[in-house]
Design goal:
The protein is of the alpha+beta class. Strands 2-1-3-4 form a four-stranded mixed sheet, covered by helices on one side. It is elongated, with a radius of gyration of 18 Å. The relative contact order is 0.11. It has eight helices and four strands; from the N terminus they run H-H-H-H-H-E-H-H-E-E-E-H. It binds FE2/S2 (inorganic) cluster. FE2/S2 (inorganic) cluster binds at residues 93, 95-98, 134-138, 141, 143.
Length: 171
């Protein structure tokens, strides 16, 4: 474990005494429960805001699970993030209807404008891009979800306006 601890990035929650204490408390409170892995990961996502790679190793060690299992769970559910989410989130529906309606072109536009990939957050912490499954608005495809707001029939050339609107909210 010491070797693992030496590699923890300076800004990781495990290097913040307060956050480390929260992580330890969550592990302590839940480690004996049936299905402890999901409970612990859910609590950590809620309390810390993300589950960093170092946290995944730490949780695996404390729960006696392989790191690959923890990593598998974190990567599978879009609810979990490995870096802090931005102040705003743009989700791109990659369900079948949105896929055939060209969601990939919108995703490409977003990557080009913001310089980040889905799953990442802009350097200024403003926007996180995420992919999601069908959100039940297929007749409006392609669909994106900006924070809690659904936007349908999105066109690549109108996407920059979406970014401007988010920035305007911050101004
Ligand atoms: S596939 Fe995108 S809303 Fe259903």
């Amino acid at each position: 474990m010491l070797k693992i601890m030496e590699k923890i990035p300076a800004d990781d929650p495990l290097n913040d005494p307060e956050q480390h204490a929260v992580i330890d408390q969550i592990l302590e409170d839940n480690k004996s429960l049936p299905g402890a892995t999901m409970v612990v990961l859910n609590e950590l996502q809620g309390a810390i805001g993300h589950i960093s790679p170092s946290m995944q190793v730490y949780v695996a060690d404390r729960l006696g699970e392989p790191v690959s299992r923890i990593h598998g769970v974190v990567s599978f559910y879009s609810f979990f993030t490995t870096t802090p989410r931005g102040r705003h989130t743009i989700k791109f529906c990659v369900g079948t209807a949105c896929y055939v309606s060209g969601i990939n072109q919108i995703i490409e536009k977003a990557k080009q404008i913001l310089g980040v990939e889905p799953g990442e957050t802009t350097e200024d912490g403003l926007i996180t891009l995420e992919l999601c499954r069908c959100v039940g608005a297929c007749s409006q495809a392609p669909v994106i979800v900006v924070d809690e707001e659904f936007l349908g029939r999105v066109k690549p050339n109108r996407f920059p306006k979406t970014i401007q609107d988010i920035k305007a909210k911050e101004a």
